[in-house]
Amino acid sequence: METSILIETVIKAIIVLSVFATLAGFTTYIERKVLAFMQRRLGPMNVGPHGLLQLAADGIKLFTKEDFIPANASKPVFMIAPIITAATAFIAMSAVPFFPEFELFGYTVRPIIADINVGVLFVMGVASVGLYGPLLAGMSSANKWALLGGARTAIQLLSYEVVSGLALLAPLMLVGSLSLIDINNYQAGGFTHWIIWSQPLAFVLFVIAGFAETNRTPFDLLEHEAEIVAGYATEYSGLRWGMFFIGEYANLFTICFLISLIFLGGFNDLGFIPGGLAIVLKVMFLIFFFLWTRASWPHIRPDQLMWLCWKVLMPLAVINILITGFVMMF
């Protein structure tokens, strides 16, 4: 029995790693196409039909590009930093239930690697460790622009993790559990039972914090080409550079699944739409929403970012917790 559980877990881990690593790369193509459409351009067109093979061309370029390490860099730390970013992004997915249970050749498959009763806490905790990747990359690069990018990483991620954590407290008070499966089951009553209707402010706060924690416009100060070359990744190239951005897009999928599971009914059936297809559609819409925002909003200044976090979002999150507590009491 233990052997079969171990084999099943290993297979699930391999599938999640391979599928989301591929999706992370493919999302870069989708992003370029969506942004091009919104800006009345064509985007990638030269490699394959409508540029479909651009992803393969970019992958070949990453594999064959020279992988250099600056002479004055702290080499062990410089080499480990991209691994931290990519590893934490995929480890965080291990507690996320992607689909409802289904049977395959008479065997019940649960599409979650590790069903732990503190799933939300685990995902948030592991994702927060991911900030050490960009931070160490900036500190070890012997480059002042990379150091500034690393410093911005620590400031931005730590600040908005406070907002995302406080935003989730109110929904967790309603559910009474940290398990993502319990949160999903809490919304099993249908569309009207989605937590977004009872916690709209928490939803908005968590989505805004998600933009900041995944380095998406308008909160993309971690790697801000317009100001500091390429931020913490200035000195990186080849596969090490690619690992940072595979981790970034993997985090984007994790955030979209969390939003769907916690606020938008998860993988419960949506009318005539089965639950597995429903959560895929929700995640696809959220991915598109993140891309749409990038095409629509300008960058904001670092002082505006901190002002929004500490003077607007965090007080609103605390007020929402207090209101939820009083409503539950009475």
Describe, in plain words, how this protein is organized in 3D.
The chain is an all-alpha fold. The chain has one domain. The chain contains 13 helices and two strands, in the order H-H-H-E-E-H-H-H-H-H-H-H-H-H-H. It has helices spanning 2-38, 54-64, 75-92, 119-129, 132-140, 144-175, 180-186, 195-198, 200-213, 225-228, 238-263, 275-296, 302-329, and strands spanning 102-104, 107-109. A two-stranded antiparallel sheet has the order 1-2. It starts with a helix and ends with a helix.
N- and C-termini, Cα separation: 48 Å
Mean pLDDT: 90
Strand arrangement within the widest β-sheet reads 1-2
Categorize the overall geometry: globular
Strand count, sense and barrel status of the largest sheet are: 2 strands, antiparallel
Q: Proportion of β residues? A: under 5%
**How many strand elements?**
2
User: Structural class from helices and strands?
Assistant: mainly alpha
Low-confidence stretches: none
Radius of gyration: 20 Å
Give the topology string: H per helix, E per strand.
Answer: HHHEEHHHHHHHHHH
Alpha plus pi helix count = 13
Oligomer: single chain
| Helix content class | 55-70%
> How many discrete structural domains?
1
